[in-house]
Amino acid sequence: MILVDTHCHLDAPQLADEPTADVVARAAAAGVARMVTIGTDVASSRRAVRLAAAHAAVWAAVGIDPNSALEADDAALAEIEALARHPKVVAVGEIGLDHHWDKAPHDVQARVFQAQLELATRLGRPVVIHCRDAHPDATAQLAAWAAGADRGRAGPRGVMHCFSGDLPGARRLVDLGFVISLAGPVTFKNAAAARAVAAGLPLDALVVETDAPYLAPHPHRGQRNEPALVRHTAACVAELRGLPLADLARATSANAARVFGWPAPEAWAA
Q1: What is the tally of helices (H) and strands (E) in the chain?
Q2: For residues 247 and 253, is the Cβ–Cβ distance under 8 A?
Q3: Is the pTM of this model over 0.90?
């Protein structure tokens, strides 16, 4: 069985009490063959690239998220572009809109989001989208981008990370060329919307993630999350769909490969 954790933060302070190699080894023991560690600003994007370069199973995404949008001056965006050219960087992200924390004005968030969507287009990279309490605005901006972007690449446009909307909203994003990523909250008994998305979307539209060290799945809720625990999220999604875990793992890993431009999972051990 091969699993992919499509979104984690291996550089987070909560994971700093042990070598990253130990975290990666536990993931491998749980069947997690690849993981994507995510930048949220320039500094964390640098760290993501360093970690990806140091560990064969780790890949990186680089970007400035909406909560760091005030730091996204021309120099910062230029550095993100330089980092995005590294051979182990597979996406621009996480980028998007956040109207929950509101750490930057909405117009600034939208402008920084747009600049990085355009960067992804120039480089032929997919995007990893952060969206919190901003689904109508984010979907509208993504729709406008999708309508005008000549990507120069096959496969999905990107990943909607830790999707927190409803099934109709998820279907709209799939229609725009995105896959939907489900994280630990789908394992919570009160997560009706996430469970409806897990059961109701086509299987080729789903991937799984941890968002480690955050959002640990049941039965580890409230504890430090790590990539090995994506197995619990995958098992929950498999149960909701009436599938064996191995089938769900195979499909979501193939979906991740389509997004990130990897060969088929069967080739990874070669």
Answers
A1: 9, 8
A2: no
A3: yes
